[in-house]
Amino acid sequence: MMDMKTDPRFRGLEPFANRVWLSSPTMHGDEQRFVDDAIATNWVSTVGRNIDEAEKAIAEIIGVQYAVGLSAGTAALHLATKLAGERLYGRAKPYEGTLAGHRVFCSDMTFDASVNPVAYEDGEAVFIDTERDTWNMDPDALEEAFRRYPEVKLIVLAHLYGTPGKMDEIRKIADAHGALIIEDAAESLGAKYRLKGRWVETGAIGDYNCISFNGNKIITGSSGGMFLTDSKEDADKVRKWSTQSREPAPWYQHEEIGYNYRMSNLIAGVVRGQIPFLNAHIEQKKAIYERYKAGLKDLPVTMNPFDAQKSIPNYWLSCMLIDESAMARHSRGELDEKWTRTKGKTCPGEILAALTAFRAEGRPLWKPMHMQPIYRNHAFVSGVDVGEDLFRRGLCLPSDNKMTREEQDIIIEIIHRCFR
Ligand SMILES: Cc1ncc(COP(=O)(O)O)c(C=O)c1O
Prior knowledge:
420 residues, alpha/beta, Aspartate Aminotransferase, domain 1, Aspartate Aminotransferase, domain 2, 2 domains, eight-stranded mixed sheet, four-stranded antiparallel sheet, 12 helices, 33% helix, binds pyridoxal-5'-phosphate
């Protein structure tokens, strides 16, 4: 493997004095005030003003009736999956998941936290390939999946990197088959989609909706997530399950399995302080995306695409896809990769290695679920395996909203030099 610092292509470039991150938390000050207030008033557990206010503000922004603060987006997805399982197949025995014996159609190109809750509930994920227009679940592949497995009643889908998927088509298909949708909007908080002529927020489109405040997200609580719904019954259920499923008795009485998934009032203080900056963060991320697009336009690459008529992304991560004709020869094993230096060509591994050498953080695209060892024996419904192709040729670029223009210019220069 080549040492990027001594590679003549990179002569004259110095590593960044301060590391440039992929997407790191950006605090503004009010977070501290709300956390301090929780400590000063002794409300540091899973009840308190910060939770109430953060839930209220998020419900308002997304346009849903109820938001339930949880310890993580993954917790929200788990309880959403369990709610869907109970509605579809009834309450399960304590030792069994609600999806036992049932298949669920899932986004293939996503973080595994989207789909693991299907396994937590004993369901079998069937992965649906990705389309090239938004890098999300392909409606054609979804149609095909319903032809193969007409009994399926649940779809789990994510909006990749903050770009909404083809929700009008997917909703139509779901409705035609009487299937429910779990919307994983962990990466897309603040992104909008034009559904039936009306702009709606991602996180308000599914039958069950989830967002994340993980440290790398567009706004963060350091951790945390929320379940979003218009159903009071579902909101109450998630609140109850997330606090150990206590019944309203004087003692600890349990009729259902419980979880310790509720958001703490300290975390909610950080979330509460971040909420007013959601739009500012989106603007910063959009500017980053547009600067990459302009700065890379002379190279044989494209940016992560979106449908400008039907969607407004939150631009959480800027990503890049190398044209097939400009791909250097390379191979990936399970845990490592190799490439051959080729004039005029490069590959994601080489660009990521160059960025790392200059102290900037990029990342390969999500490795599709059907390629993951844990899920490799699951069904995958696809035409030409778009997910594998995107994973092979794509990468996430440093997209931190604190990155300066000058730093981004240098990153763009490093990428150019990889093609020399
Ligand atoms: C698509 C997607 N789903 C779910 C999650 C899980 O969220 P959390 O880390 O808050 O559990 C993440 C990110 O972490 C994600 O990117």
